[in-house]
Amino acid sequence: MDFRKAGLRETEYEEIKRVLGREPNECELRIMGVMWSEHCSYKSTKHLLKLFPNEGERVVLGPGENAGIVDLGEGLGAAFKVESHNHPSAVAPYQGAATGVGGIIRDILALGARPVASLDGLFFGDPERARTRTLASGIVHGVGGYGNAVGVPTVGGKTVYDPCYNENPLLNAFCIGLIPLDEIVSSRTARPGQAVVLLGSKTGRDGIAGAAFASVELSEDNKASRPSIQIGDPFAEKLLIEACLEMKEKKLIVSMQDMGAAGIISSSSEVAAKSGVGMILHFDKVPLRAENMEPWEIALSESQERMLLIVDRPRLSEVMKIAEKWELDCAEFGETVEGDEYTILFHGERAASLPATLIGDRCPQIHWPSRRPADLEARWTFDVEDIPLPQDWNEALLSLLSSPSLASKESIYEQYDSMVQLNTVVGPGHPVNMLRIKGRDSLIAMTLDADPWKCSLDPFRGGAETVARSVRDLAVSGARAAGLTDCLNFPSPEVPEQYWVLEECVKGMAEACAAFNCPVVSGNVSLYNESPEGAILPTPVVGTVGIVPSTDATLSSGSWEEGDVLFLVGPCNPSLGGSRYLLSQGRFEGRPLPFSPEAEKDFVERALKTASSKAAHSGRAISGGGLAAALAKESMESGVGAAAAVPVPTRKDVFLFGEGGARALYAVPMSRVPLFKTLWSGYPCIPVGRAGGDSLSVEGAFSLPVAKLLTKWRGR
Fold first, then answer.
1. What is the CA radius of gyration of the chain?
2. From 153's CA, which of 51, 74, 173, 694 has a CA 20 to 30 Å away?
3. Beta strands of 554-655 (E only): which ranges?
4. Closest by alpha carbon to 642, among 701, 686, 684, 703?
5. Exposure class string for 509-533: b at 16+ Cβ within 10 A, else e
């Protein structure tokens, strides 16, 4: 077999030959082609990911395992991660999204954690296109169909529309689970002489080489890729969750790994390499659901709902009994051994023999040429005076609110079960989602965010702003960020300008994470997000998790009351660059504001004190759509209007629609105004109006009934 057909570069092939001292056979070539694919090896980004801070006060487990873990206190941890399933969702929307949800749930389960909530990041093309509507419908149904059936609530997410995603939609799935810190299961704890066990569904031909498929650009004939799409069964996953957790509680599992990308080969070789052991696997003992499967097909199948377990042999019979109880296939198909040997036997013959560390750890890294885009400064150069003020301010606001990325996403999240498990305190439709922890007063808060437009215009500033937005949202709600997970969705790294954008985004994100003391504990990289129509915008997605010390320390959004004084905290000179306002007018230009670490940290501390001291009725960090969108959303959710003004000599469109910077809109009862002013003394803080009535108005700008805002926002 030609090494190129296996997806290997010539330098990689030569390295494999050098290590083996011989030519690899076809099975070995196919294995290495998938395991050294971009999706599995991170060969283009491994050096960049080292820029992220990954240690912090609450970090229990950072990058390197199936998910990261932060300490919730009193011996309990939260395990969380975000993963992409982009290419599969473009080719088979329902199954691509469904198996993306199933896969991230198993990543959390692999640590021994019970999955308790999911978020989804959805990036769709032009909603006027029939193709976009088909893709979006399938993906949303896939997320809901799997999550609802498996019993893990989808409590929030992020949905974005832009023509760059027309043929390459993105599905990023986030999951969080709870785990007693003394019960964490690791992929690094296998020892020689233990049994290698496959638990879950039978192995078939679905999803073979799916990881390699995720590492190339989408072709015009996507139908040719359908064999690479996995088929999910949420009911089998529910049984798998309960079986694994029962085995963990009875301390029957030495090590555990999800069989996700690259299936058996990935899960088993990772455990071997991380634990410092070898493995001998007998593929004729693997339960199959397809006839005449070749060893390489068994190795690379991505059949869903399967887990790899390492079990001490004296406990093997107990494992089998629990599997039988939950009606799951369970088979011992290998053993761990001394050394670095990784051998696959099939009907008594040696199908493959490779060093375990070669498979997972020794792919040569690629430092692609990097070049600053020649037109970068030209994108930034625009004079705000060239932008005419709206002739009809009412229409400007209504047009903004009805733009696809800002409009209500109720039609999406109403398809999700957000209340199963009965722990959801704040569900979909809010800036921050919250979960109760049974038996405790503290809450877990989480948010998923992205801003591909700012990342395209200035990747460093855009990357920093993406992190900052998620931390601001948490702080205003009363949660201090404990850690984040990221999914780096980018086009081909082989284009120097695109690689430079990737580098700069990571640098900006890393600077913001360091400033907030918010370490990156897990993540995913998805490259080659391109189709014949072009490349996606740079789309780093961050899922940030925070902790609210008690329910009394939370501050909700959308809870104005009659007579509340509205305060804007933060600078009054935001940027229209990359703003939703300009985008709604068909203009994509300008430069986002620079990241200001000291101001951001000051904002976070004041916001947390505002929430804990109950100094406001409502609070919302300002992001997409600027102050105008924040006013409208707060008014619509509260069912209360307001009369506001522009109390500073800034252009009204910049003041109302500009974005960026550490800013928030608060509604403060009169009795709390002195306390609120004290908390924000020394930070920009101005009154902008009063809540009341049934219309939202800004003097000299718009004036609209709240009911009309709601109708336009909901598209009904």
1. 26
2. 74
3. 565-569, 618-621, 642-644
4. 703
5. bbbbbebbbbbbbbbbbbbbbbbee
- Say if 1-36+185-363 and 53-183+408-549 have the same CATH topology: no
SS3 for 294?
coil
DSSP annotation of 592: P
Phi/psi of residue 713, nearest 5 degrees:
-65, -40
Q: Which two tokens stand for residue 166?
A: 């027309």
Beta strands (DSSP E) in 137-206 are: 154-161, 170-180, 195-200
586 CB burial (10 A radius; 0-12, 13-18, 19+): exposed
Q: Contact 651/602 with Cβ under 8 angstroms?
A: no
Per-residue pLDDT of 502-561, as tens digits, reads: 999 999 999 999 999 999 999 999 999 999 999 999 999 999 999 999 999 999 999 999
Cα angle 366, 371, 376; round to 5: 140
- How do the domains of the chain map onto residue ranges? 1-36+185-363, 53-183+408-549, 555-716
Closest C-alpha to 116, from 519, 414, 479, 437? 437
Q: List the alpha helices (DSSP H) in 129-221.
A: 130-150, 210-213
The closest of 174, 333, 193 to 267, measured between CA atoms, is 333
The CATH superfamily label for domain 1-36+185-363 reads PurM-like C-terminal domain (3.90.650.10)
Amino acid at residue number 326: W
Q: What is the pLDDT of residues 667-679, one digit of tens each?
A: 999 999 999 999 9
Rounded Cα distance, 447 and 122, in Å: 14
Please say whether the dihedral angle defined by the alpha carbons of residues 516, 520, 524 and 525, taken in this order, is positive or negative: positive
How many C-beta atoms surround the C-beta of residue 367 within 10 A? 11
Q: Is 39 a catalytic residue?
A: yes
- CATH T-level topology, domain 53-183+408-549: 60s Ribosomal Protein L30; Chain: A; (3.30.1330)
What pLDDT is attached to residue 230?
Answer: 76
Query: CB-based contacts of 600: which residues, under 8 Å, 6+ apart?
Result: 468, 471, 472, 512, 515, 516, 662
Whether the model pTM is above 0.70: yes
Model confidence at 305: pLDDT above 60: yes
Query: Coil, strand, or helix at residue 297?
Result: helix
Instruction: Check if the beta carbon of residue 103 is closer than 8 Å to that of residue 92.
Output: no
Task: Give which of 138, 176, 105 is closest to 415, Cα–Cα.
Answer: 138
Token representation of residue 603: 């904002």
Band of the pLDDT at 225, cuts 50, 70, 90?
very low
Rounded distance between C-alpha atoms, residue 424 and residue 77, angstroms: 18
Sign of the CA dihedral with 203 first, then 205, 207, and 208 last:
positive
Between CA 179 and CA 169 the distance in angstroms is 33
Q: Look-up: residue for tokens 């019960």?
A: 183
pLDDT at residue 213 in the model: 57
Average pLDDT for 196-214: 80
Active site (annotated) includes residue 87: no
CA atoms within 13 A of residue 585's CA, in its CB half-sphere: 19
User: C-alpha angle 443/446/448, rounded to 5°?
Assistant: 170
Alpha helices in 276-392 (DSSP H): 295-300, 316-325, 356-361, 376-380
Structure tokens given for 181? 């810190």
- CATH of span 555-716: 3.90.650.10
The residue to which tokens 């104005």 are assigned? 560
**Options 39, 87, 430, 617, the catalytic residue:** 39
Decide if pLDDT at 22 tops 60. yes
